[in-house]
Design a protein that fits this description.
- 2 copies of one chain form a homodimer.
- By secondary structure, chain A is an alpha+beta fold.
- Chain A is 42% helix and 24% strand.
- Chain A is built from 7 helices and 10 strands.
- A 4-stranded antiparallel β-sheet of chain A has the order 1-8-3-6. Chain A has a 4-stranded antiparallel β-sheet with strand order 2-7-4-5, with helices on one face. A two-stranded antiparallel sheet of chain A has the order 9-10.
- In chain A, strand 9 and strand 10 (191-194) form a beta hairpin.
- In chain A, helix 4 packs across helix 7 (197-204) and helix 5 packs across helix 6.
- The longest helix of chain A has 27 residues, at 98-124.
- The interface between A and B is large, with 42 and 42 residues.
- Chain A binds a DNA duplex through residues 126-127, 157-159, 167-171, 173-174, 177, 189.
Chain lengths: 206, 206
DNA sequence: CGAACGCTTGACTTCTATCAACAGGTGTGG
DNA sequence: CCACACCTGTTGATAGAAGTCAAGCGTTCG
């Protein structure tokens, strides 16, 4: 529905779509590409709070909360096309289209669940368990590449993976190579392959 | 508005209102008392995801997400009176009262912010910073007792405080007595008093 | 082609969880 | 109303997980 919007904008990989602290002016629907939503923590370290892909809507939290300023930033992970929907259009849609409003309520409720789950995990699970879980979630969300290698269909820097898991990149690297040595995953540059699904699942739920 | 509901139920301190994994049957509005919302993590350890007080609505996330099962539990922190609103009544309100629907959207958006903020904090801040921040938030949310001592107006066990901060009770106790020794807070049984607001704020935002 | 950035590894330190033992308080049933 | 049992709070000692720092190498992009 929102994809029919006329304003399609191209964002190069690594481009900031909106920033924490700025006034929200609209929402974006991802036509193609991948996006990370993150908050800046201590000394500017990025904590990723949500990942998005084609079909995902981003930027709606600040608008639906009537917030003066954005509380998170968005940046493309790869080259992407986004549809821009000005806040007036969005507000009008909300007011005139009840189905859209209920759909939005669903999305918001799901976001709360995601954030609270993640909160509990970070508070209680070990680093290794969180990494294992994150790899499984990335596979679920982005799927695997069409190739025979079944690589997870997203290319993240170790730094981004660290921001998603909630740790430092050096720790991620150490754990990844440990998992590779144990034959649980495969590594080929930034491409990660899940080789032993059961073990990974067991690691994720201790 | 919802407070006018006829079904007011008394819950003794420590009583479970609803449990993770159960089918949601309605929402509750807190008439008086205090409630914690928590998720069960590793070995049943409670991670508190939200606190509630008189006037707060709880239990709506599962309903608005159309979830089959609850993803969090609720328990009273002290003796409380709750108004019960069956899901049918709640759904009817949503469909017929646009203002209520928009208000709910606001609440959901705010919950996302709270959860994502907390997520970033737990991932990045030190235990001491999180405890300092939590104490300030508790004071903001529950206010201070009417007495001259300015004690934070909620009585939590050290275990609950640990569940809120995301750590073990032994760690909380150690840090609390350290803060007391430094004159930043006062302790009288379970009552906590903020004595040096500036220092606490500085500790919370390193 | 070179500078900048990302990746990797090792060594080290620090923070925080865990365990155990005991003190103090609370609540319940007799 | 008292006594006992149980839960909560407190402290110390210890171990281990994870963060930090630094150096070197590989890759990528302008």
């Amino acid at each position: 529905m929102l994809l029919r919007s006329k304003r399609v904008i191209f964002f190069k990989k690594g481009k900031v779509i909106f920033s924490e602290g700025n006034a929200p002016v609209g929402v974006y629907c991802i036509s193609s590409g991948k996006v990370k939503l993150y908050k800046l923590g201590i000394e500017g370290k990025e904590q990723i709070v949500r990942m998005a892909k084609a079909g995902s809507l981003i930027g709606y939290r600040s608008l639906t909360g009537n917030d003066e300023y954005r509380t998170a930033s968005a940046k493309t992970i790869e080259d992407s096309y986004l549809c821009y929907i000005p806040k007036e259009t969005f507000a009008h849609l909300l007011e005139t289209n009840a189905a859209f409003a209920f759909r939005l309520i669903n999305i918001l409720a799901e976001d709360i669940k995601i954030a609270q789950d993640k909160l509990t995990d970070i508070a209680q699970k070990s680093l290794k368990a969180r990494l294992a879980e994150t790899l499984l979630e990335l596979k679920d969300f982005y799927g695997t590449a069409n190739g025979e290698d079944q690589a997870i269909n997203i290319t993240l820097t170790r730094e981004d993976l660290a921001g998603l898991v909630g740790t430092a990149s050096a720790c991620i690297i150490r754990l990844l190579s440990e998992l590779k040595k144990q034959g649980v995953i495969g590594l080929a540059g930034k491409k990660i392959t899940i080789k032993d699904y059961e073990t990974l699942q067991r690691l994720a739920n201790p």
